[in-house]
Amino acid sequence: MSNSVGLGNVWRFPFLAAQNGGGAFLIPYFILYFLIGAPLYYLELSLGQFSSRGPAKAFILAKGWQGVGIAMIINSVFTMLYYNVVISWALFYFVLSFRKRLLWADCGYWWNTCACFVPGNTGRPQGCNEIDLAALSNVSNATALKRTPATDEFY
Hints:
Elements: H1 7-19, H2 26-51, H3 55-58, H4 66-96, E1 116-117, H5 130-136, E2 148-149, H6 150-154
C-alpha cells in the first residue's frame, strides 16, 4: 500500500493535470486506472492473501517471478529512506510556521549574510558593518551585486 499512495500523488498530480489539459487529463487517467492499476493492485493483494506469505516468499509460486518480491522489498527500503527525509522537512517547516515571527521573513538571524535582503525592503541589511557593505556594493561593477532573498538564505 505504501508504494501506491505517496507524497508524489499529492504534489505532482495537480501540476500534471494542469500541464496536460486540466480536466481532460482525468479521463485517460481514470480509464487507465480502472483497466490496469486497480486490477494489478487487486492481484497483488490477492496473491499475498492466498499465499499467506510476505513479498519475498509469495512469488515463489511462479519460478520466473521470484525476483519480483525481492525487488518490491528493495523498492520499499529505498522509498522509506528518502520519504523519511521529505516528511521530516515538511513537519519541520509546518511547526516553524506557527511562530509569531517567521524565521524566513527577514534577515536578522545568525545564519544570514550581508547579501541577505527582504524583497520590497530597500533598507540596510541587518548585522552588516560598513566594510562588508562596501565590498558587497562595489560601485565600479554594479552588476557584481549579488543579493540573496531571506527565504533562500533560510532554506
